[in-house]
């Protein structure tokens, strides 16, 4: 028989990647159109964040795999630091 933990291993979780953030005044949001650029708070050379369940669990670099974007994990975030990243 399977343990309750083993049953959880097949649960799908949403994973998102954060390239950065920006605080933009509403008046600037209303001016956005095709071709507009929103500058983010992260340099191109900085790692992106891997987010699961609104919590940063890892950081890595963007890669291209067979024409699709992916992330190569460079750092797993410690359990204590994960709690600080809750969104």
The largest sheet has its strands arranged as 1-2-3-4
Low-pLDDT residue intervals, each spanning 5 or more residues: none
Q: Would you count the extended β strands for me?
A: 4
Broad structural category: alpha+beta
Strand content: 25-35%
Rg, Å, rounded: 17 Å
The topology string of helices and strands comes to HEHEEEH
Shape: elongated
Mean pLDDT: 91
Question: Could you walk me through the main structural features you see in this protein, from its secondary elements to its overall organization?
Answer:
- The protein is of the alpha+beta class.
- It has helices at residues 4-8, 26-29, 79-84; strands spanning 15-18, 48-52, 55-65, 68-76.
- The protein has a four-stranded antiparallel beta sheet.
- The model has no long low-confidence stretch (mean pLDDT 91).
Question: What are the salient characteristics of this protein?
Answer:
four-stranded antiparallel β-sheet; single chain; alpha+beta; 87 residues
Give a nutshell description of this structure.
Helices cover 17% and strands 33% of the residues. With 87 residues, the protein is an alpha+beta fold. The chain has a four-stranded antiparallel beta sheet.
